Amino acid sequence: MTQSPTTRASLLLRLRDSQDHEAWVEFVSLYEPVAFRLLRRHGLQDADAREVMQELFMAVSRSIDRWDPAKERGSFRGWLRRVARNLVINWLKQRDRRVTAAGGSELQLMLDQLPEDAAAETAEFDQELRRVLFHQAAERVQREVQATTWQAFWETGVLGTSPAEAAQKLGMQVGAVRVAKCRVLVRLQAAVNELEKLT
Asked: Fewer CB in 10 Å around end: N or C, the chain?
């Protein structure tokens, strides 16, 4: 099992400078898809998830200068998960107060869907982060390789097409399909490793 990436300390230091646009772009591009999918998975509608996500990034912006890993318990990502969870709970409570006819049972149902086990929440967050890293790496590698190489990888590595079927479909030799898949996998792993160093 691979260890999940940690957020780069230099990025956290750069986030303290609200004028460092590149640091915030890097931070948001990494964590926005992760936060959005988790919020949607916990029952928030699209617009509501985006609203809570904005609150999350504003909370990070307001408190990043006070973040001290020596004083905090756990990692930055653990802190970010707790902040996100608290924002969801607060949002659901506020929404329940605004909707008087709901009777509170809908709120309780949604709160029950939030993971109580910190390990489960951590695993879910890390899975979403790995998914984002894979997509970013895949976009990078796809631009670097020939279209037929990428198609051979995609057919066999993602869609599960047999090398023989992919070769026939793409007009390639079976051996060439296997080589293409291996080359792309190696490049993807290298790209993911590189992106993990940045997180």
From this structure: N
Burial 159-197 (b: 16+ CB within 10 A, else e): eebebeebbeebebeeebbbebbeebeebbeebbeebbe
The Cβ-side half-sphere exposure at 75, using a 13 Å CA radius, reads 14
Q: How far apart are CA 153 and CA 140, in angstroms?
A: 14
- With residue 54 as reference, give the H or E element that holds it: helix 46-63
Q: Is a pLDDT exceeding 70 seen at residue 113?
A: no
Q: What is the CATH number of the domain that holds 170?
A: 1.10.10
- The pTM assigned to this predicted structure is 0.52
> Left, alpha or beta for 61 (phi > 0: left; psi -120 to 50: alpha)?
alpha
Q: pLDDT tens-digit profile of 146-158?
A: 999 999 999 998 8
Domain that holds residue 171: 145-199
Q: Are residues 10 and 99 in the same domain?
A: yes
Give the DSSP per-residue string, 121-158.
HHHHHHHHHHHHHHHHHHHHHHHHS-HHHHHHHIIIII
Number of H helices, E strands in the chain: 9, 0
133 close to 199: Cβ distance less than 8 angstroms: yes
Same domain, 96 and 167: no
CA atoms within 13 A on the CB side of 189: 6
62 and 21 housed in the same domain: yes
